[in-house]
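does this look right to u?? iron/sulfur cluster version
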Amino acid sequence: MALAHERVFGQRAEAIIYPEASYKAYIETYGCQMNFADSELVAGILQTTGYTFTPSPEEADLILINTCAIREHAEEKIWQRLKYFASIKRQRSHLIVGVLGCMAERLKKKLLEEEPVVDLIAGPDSYRHLPQLIRQVESGTKAIHVLLSREETYADMAPLRLSPHRVSAYISIMRGCNNMCSFCIVPFTRGRERSRPWESIVQEVEGLAKAGYKEITLLGQNVDSYNDRGLRFAQLLSKVAEAAPNVWIRFATSHPKDMLDDVLETISLYPNLTPYIHLPVQAGSDAVLERMNRGYSAEWYIQRIEAIRRYLPEAVISTDIIVGFCGETEADFEETLSLMRTVRFDSVYQFMYSERPGTLAARRYADDVPPQVKQERLERVIALAQAISLERNQAQLNSQQRVLVEKPSRRDPNDLAGRTFSGRAIVVRGAAAFAQPGDILSVNVTGASSATLIGYAASSN
Ligand code: 5AD
Ligand code: SF4
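got this back:
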């Protein structure tokens, strides 16, 4: 399952100051959590070759932009940023600009040809080669490496954590995707699915726990098909839960056709495995699901939701929905709304279908839902999703929740923002006076909007 949520784009590398700063790198990341994890890996690789990091592209010697290709809109943003980097390069002729990630993989040489500022292209399986590629550019030629691998999991490489608050960390447990959903570019940009050896995952988890991290998210395009020499995702979860008993463990993304009860049962057995499930449904009509090549029906999906609620009554469930996929009729679309009413998602990420060249859907079906119909359907999904999220959040009023504090609240510096154990966003009023990122607070919930809960700390523990 693709993990792309564009709403999290634009993270900047934290500056790490060394006494004798050498070359400075700036990394900008777009797209999914996997891309953020990859940027940390890239930062780790650069650090071993002597780079330091800057949060401002204007003073960088090397700019790397880690890109997303999931929708056309995501790529348009990258072209704009490249124009900006070109303006910096006019002042700093030695500046090297590299494009990484899914758009690099999709467009390959075309990027070099169409945007002269680009010196270097590296796809998702090429980061190990970055030092050589940079040297090649330094010696005067453009560099490109976009070979996809069947084995690369970067299991032996240490990421440099870029998040300013050392509270939450991502670990990628697998790469690529074998699913071939017809709308999706990911199998083409990230290649075949492969699982990272479980020992290296557990080792990284232990290291993060020792370093004081409180929350770890295990990442994969489809975690339910994790398979390391026969060891499956449920067993990996047990090993990780045991390796870091005081760390809250989350994961993404699950696939409805592969998510088995053993994973749900495992979550119910360990107090640090969090009952947050992101289970993209994409559409509520069986005809559309069939054309999407999703491998399940609406009824199957609803049964999976029932299984989640049976094992994990407190589960928070989110989903992805695409509106306006090829051939989607008004009646098909209404089945999506009706599924939303049945399931009652805590949150929904909704997207208008964007045709990606080379995908099965682009080759087989006409992108025939007019843009204004897509827009109107998107708005109807948003309105319904928000109404349901509000009710789900209001049902939390007057409850007491354990909350992991993540960062200062954006709205008011006296407040802190975090998440409940099951993954609901929450703002804790006035908590900046006595708590900090990484603390776990007991919070009485006193307010709820569709996007967040609001509460006051009862005590810290
Ligand atoms: N158009 C629109 N949305 C897409 N997604 C994936 N490919 C496309 C596309 N071509 C959505 C899916 C996926 C999420 C990460 O992005 O909903 O689950
Ligand atoms: Fe997710 Fe399907 Fe794309 Fe794989 S092909 S990344 S499962 S949406």
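The radius of gyration is 22 Å. idk if thats expected tbh
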